[in-house]
Amino acid sequence: MTGGSLQLTGLTRVHHAGQPPALDDFSLDVPAGSCVAVLGPSGSGKSTVLRLTAGLDEPTAGTVRVDGVDLAGVVPERRGMAMVFQRPLLFPHLTVRDNVAFADRVRGVPRKVARQRAEDFLELVQLGGYGGRPVRALSGGQEQRVALARALAAEPRVLLLDEAFSALDAALREEMHQLLADLRMRLDPTILLVTHDHAEADALADTVAVLDAGRLRQQGQMRSLYARPASLVVSRLLGGRTEVRGVVRDGRHESPLGALDLPEQVPDGPAVLVVRHEAVRVTGSADPAADVVGTVVRARRRGLRALVTVEVVGAGGEATVEAELEPGSDAPTGRPVGLRLPVEARWVVPVEGAAGEPARPPAGASGMRRDRSG
């Protein structure tokens, strides 16, 4: 099985006249054998991307091509695609084997051959020996493996995953992520997936397209998006927690945190400093290498680690910085601490997000007075 290349160009979908488009001039290339994630919150247009790609809806404008062939007017079953949904949608009256064999049977493949191929695909998803079972006897994770095997048995040019693992618990999601990675090594499929979980997009995809309010906000490798978000919209969707308003002058961001050097030259003017909480190091308040000194105003446990909110009082006002402590470390509320903000982890974005909305600080961002009770 070898995947094909997918090209989405200028896709627009207006559900009802007079309403904003659910998808607005969306373009995306998914190279053959790659996995690309479309990441966004509920209502951002993610599922619309998949429905237009699969032919379940028609675009108001734009094209869908596989290996350069325009699929306009091609019905879903002839597009060479298969989709796995959040719910497995298995046929309850069929065995596991016959669920997987369904696509072959529809194509006219003899029952014996279709069932043997189904067993092969069940082996691929680590369900060898389950073929004769009724689907009602399966766990949720097993049902999703069967749904994946059924999709792969159709030998699609493009595999579409619509929040396929979001209903599973954390351990099962991780198992499915590893399974998909193994399948990619064996089968080299082309995968377009949509998810609201940036950790899942990071785990599965080669590149990520961030979608919000029907518009593509930024695309690239997840590490690049984490470190260099194009806007507050992107930073927030990727779990960014620190936003410090200030002004850029001569390569430095000036704010209540002081004048901090930036890793790259950017235009002077108002800007918001964003720093990933994972990159901030909490040290002693007397640390000479600390970039700023502040007071812990909140601490939340996250397994072996803790996330702390540090309030800094400086020239021109106050700011807050979120930081993740090292495993086993503790920083109780009220403790003065130093913060090291690595230069390479600093980045600035426009005061307004990509959609032009005001820079609304999220909970834990700068400019918001903290409850010192912890």
Automatic annotation (TrEMBL):
Pfam short name (any one): ABC_tran
Enzyme class: translocase
Domain of life: Bacteria
SMART domains: AAA
Low complexity bias: start-end ranges: 352-365
Annotated region described as Disordered, given as residue ranges: 352-374
Classification via Gene3D superfamilies: P-loop containing nucleotide triphosphate hydrolases
UniProt keyword list: ATP-binding, Cell membrane, Ion transport, Iron, Iron transport, Membrane, Nucleotide-binding, Transport
PROSITE patterns: ABC_TRANSPORTER_2 (PS50893)
GO MF term set: ABC-type ferric iron transporter activity; ABC-type quaternary ammonium compound transporting activity; ATP binding; ATP hydrolysis activity
EC nos: 7.6.2.9
GO annotations of cellular component type: membrane
Tagged with keyword Cell membrane: yes
Occurrences of domain ABC transporter (ranges): 6-238
UniProt name for this protein: ABC-type quaternary amine transporter
